[in-house]
Amino acid sequence: MYEFEEKRLEKLDAMRAQGLAVYPHGLRVTHSTAQVEALIGGRDAAALGEDSTEVVLAGRLMFKNEMGKAGFARVQDSEGRLQLYIRKNDVGDDTFNDVWKKLDLGDHVWARGRLMLTKSGEPSVHVSELRLAAKCIASLPDKWKGLTDPEYRNRHRYVDLFVNPESREAFVRRSRVVRAVRDFFEARGFFEVETPMLQPIPGGAVARPFVTHHNALDMPLYMRIAPELFLKRLVVGGMEKVFELNRNFRNEGVSTRHNPEFTMLEFYQAYATWEDLMDMTEALLGEVARKVTGGGAVAYADHSIDFGQPFRRWRMSEAISEKTGLSAEAVADPAAMRAFWIEGHPKDAKNPKLPSTVGKWYEWLFDEYVEEHLIQPTFITHFPAEISPLSRRSEAEPEVAERFELFVAGMELGNGFNELNDPQDQQARFLAQVAARDGGDDEAMYFDADYIKALSFGMPPTAGEGIGIDRLVMLLTGNTSIRDVVLFPALRPDRGGAAEAEAAPQPGVTQG
Predict the structure, then answer these.
(1) Does 235 score more than 60 pLDDT?
(2) Are strands 378-381 and 312-315 parallel, antiparallel or unpaired?
(3) Contact 236, 457 (CB under 8 A)
(4) Is 60 helix (H, G, I), strand (E, B) or coil?
(5) Least enclosed by CB within 10 Å: which of 196, 314, 315, 440?
(6) Domain boundaries, the chain
(7) pLDDT bracket for residue 93 (50, 70, 90)
(8) Which CATH architecture describes the domain 6-138?
(9) Cα distances (Å, whole numbers) of residue 289 to 176, 181, 309, 354, 472
(10) Are 33 and 57 contacting, i.e. CB atoms less than 8 angstroms apart?
(11) DSSP 208
(12) pTM of the entire structure?
């Protein structure tokens, strides 16, 4: 059971005993804090004194200073903070003693009054009527827990949002990112669609799914790891430009870059190529960055990321060769790559899980030696077909797929390719994935017979791509942890439970 803060409960009970509504409804407001500041503008105290405009606003009490028969408060709403000036002679003895005196930091208050400037020139409202809008019976966090402790902020987002303006701004910016992405695709004739999150067969990516059970149908279902196979079914059906912005779920590790549920953009266009998608991705990210941040370059960690310039396009084998020092011949030879790896990782000499194929070695070497160095937006291209089970093979080089991944600030941001639309080839690759799964690879794909049937009706030449929205928001807000751009990230249970230590008031603030 949650233990409420005793001193605040005493005030709440006292207000109820006075017949005051501590959680009233029907309180109307006429102005936000930002609108009040705009009304005040640059006028001086004399001009405001002649202005009879009355405003009604409401917000959370973030500062309170009592001075005998008067006092100052700052309230915060969704648009900012504004100072209130409360005087006993104006609001009356009952309101002053039974409401103002019993207000705590965090309470929601409602106020009616006129515009004014303080002697120090601060825009304010001279209050004529004051009411409690909702009582807060939890103490606000102290400066460390509330402002900077990431554990506290992630577990108590409802506090983080009203205590930390930069946190709220990150989520406002996230909303603008999503809006800008939608605008980009709608302007280009794409249809936004929704595909199943509960799927009979997980597919569209190499990942471990979450499994559940449907009681009425008496069958297992999987939380989707990607919408890809359903979106491509729509292309078969004649929807030649589609996109989806929605959640994916992967039963994998949690880190500063991974959350088990995350937001993805996926889009598909018939008769487009992977080169078209790289061009489109450059345009998309450049436009979103400009709309959200006002420019093409953004500060991230110790870097300035430039989304306004053409992105580098770098063949995967060449990137591995340059960063490892291996020759072009060596990066085509699994034995040579194994020898190189063991030289740098001698403890792995007897590791039975070491790769045995070119494609798997590319994954190991790329992750270890290349990825962290890709700071400016870079397309890594020409992935081995072996590790690209849904991608079309290059006709000129059948051993590689017409696939790219986008990397920014040392992390993967997007994955795109020319779609494999040959049903016989796709069936063979699914069978290879099934064999890998039977061999112990929990992340290998399942065989999706209905998707093969869909392809047998003929899918036109198509290119598709997925972009991680959470990571894009990280880049555009300067946050280096995905937990800071997901409102309620997945966390281990709080072993302390609800019985947390009482938080101290913020320095320099009286609570009455």
Answers:
(1) yes
(2) parallel
(3) yes
(4) strand
(5) 440
(6) 6-138, 141-311+464-512
(7) very high
(8) Beta Barrel (2.40)
(9) 10, 10, 12, 40, 10
(10) yes
(11) P
(12) 0.90
